[in-house]
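R.M. (postdoc): so does anyone remember the format we settled on? I'll just put the structure tokens first.
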């Protein structure tokens, strides 16, 4: 055996160890921290409930909305009250439709010109 033949054999464990340490270090970086895994205490839940009720949420005496007691009037934007012809005159609708169909039209044109090679 010469020194040249033994060097590649000795370099393999070093490279393997270095790569293993790098992968392990990268995996540890994404592991959850121990401090974040504490259980929620009872007073924290009570404080949250008080804060929600102070902000107007979770009202117990408020009747639940059902199909029977739902009002006939509801909020409608101006766009929802427009006719279909007026909706197609809106620039955002035109831009949306063109952006959806333009790639397919372009694909058909290029295919018929023979530029795609399909």
């Amino acid at each position: 055996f010469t020194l040249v033949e033994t060097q590649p054999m000795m370099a393999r464990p070093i490279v393997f160890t270095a790569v293993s340490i790098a992968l392990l270090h990268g995996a540890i970086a994404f592991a959850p921290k121990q401090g974040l895994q504490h259980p929620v205490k009872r007073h924290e839940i009570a404080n949250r409930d008080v804060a929600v009720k102070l902000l107007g949420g979770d009202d117990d005496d408020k009747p639940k909305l059902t199909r029977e007691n739902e009002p006939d009037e509801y909020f409608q934007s101006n766009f929802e009250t427009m006719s279909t012809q007026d909706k197609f005159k809106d620039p955002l609708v035109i831009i949306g439709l063109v952006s959806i169909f333009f790639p397919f039209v372009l694909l058909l044109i290029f295919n018929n010109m023979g530029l795609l090679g399909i």
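R.M.: ...and that's the designed sequence above, right after the tokens. Also worth knowing: The mean pLDDT is 76. The CA atoms of residues 109 and 115 lie 9 Å apart.
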